[in-house]
Sequence to fold (263 residues):
Amino acid sequence: MKRVAVITGAASGIGRGMAERFAAEGMSLVLADIEEEPLGKLETELNRKGATILSVKTDVSKSEEVEYLAERTYDTFGSVHILCNNAGVVCSRPIWEHTIEDWEWVLGVNLWGVIHGIRSFVPRMLAQETKCHIVNTASILGMVRGPGEGIYKVTKHGVVVLSETLADELAQKGAEIQVHVLCPGWVRTGILDSDRNRPNQEQNPHEVSIGGVRNVNTEMEAGISPEEVADHVYNAMQSGTFYVFTHPEQKALIQNRLENIII
Ligand SMILES: NC(=O)c1ccc[n+]([C@@H]2O[C@H](COP(=O)([O-])OP(=O)(O)OC[C@H]3O[C@@H](n4cnc5c(N)ncnc54)[C@H](O)[C@@H]3O)[C@@H](O)[C@H]2O)c1
Fold:
């Protein structure tokens, strides 16, 4: 039986990298994204390579849309072997200057998106009684502190602890679901252009300037490719690794934070 992978935020960047890698591994794919056109293009491309694809336009911040995604997935394939809760956006200014709309948008996609994924898919995955994986995309910023990307960091720290709790509770239950939390450093993707998917843009006229004085474009250009991230994810599933880092040298930043906590 072919394995089935569901990926949110599949139309671009890391999600797309995972879709291409999983298709190359012979899996059937459920591609979910808020952006319909690139989603359709990816479906056509992967179909041409012989992959079986279901694509479902989904806004992960809406529980009913993620539930619909799960219903369509199970109606079509009957089971899921890999769930990647990956969709994400970023928006940055001093944390006290963020609007309610900033908070609602970023929390909605990055944190509620993962929560909805877990609520809609985990009960169905448990009922399957087959080995499967959940990969939640956090970030190295879900592990460290510092100025900039305030809401983003709140959501990514949330995704890390959500994943830890999920993994521990599933293990306690003896479930066959392995959880992984992906914590990438810079990856060359469309994330700096997140505003393209922001709802009610006319009500949120502020410029996005991530990290104040840092040149984030240069930092991103020095990042790794989505294909490399997909390799890390695939290898982590093979080896049963929970914390998935793409830039192991950044563990020093985590150590520094923890040492400051326990000093
Ligand atoms: N690029 C990096 O350096 C980096 C580093 C660490 C973590 N991440 C995380 O990786 C994940 C993927 O981001 P990326 O870097 O590939 O960016 P990207 O912009 O290339 O891809 C994100 C995808 O999410 C989709 N999306 C946005 N809002 C959505 C919504 N409401 N519902 C469904 N889909 C939606 C976008 O259309 C896009 O296809 C995010 O969670 C991001 O926070 C990225």
About this structure: The pocket of nicotinamide-adenine-dinucleotide is lined by residues 8-9, 11-15, 33-35, 58-61, 86-89, 109, 137, 139, 184, 186-187, 189-191, 194, 197, 223 (CB under 6 Å). The beta strands are 4-8, 28-33, 53-57, 82-85, 132-137, 177-183, 243-245. The CA atoms of residues 80 and 125 lie 7 Å apart.
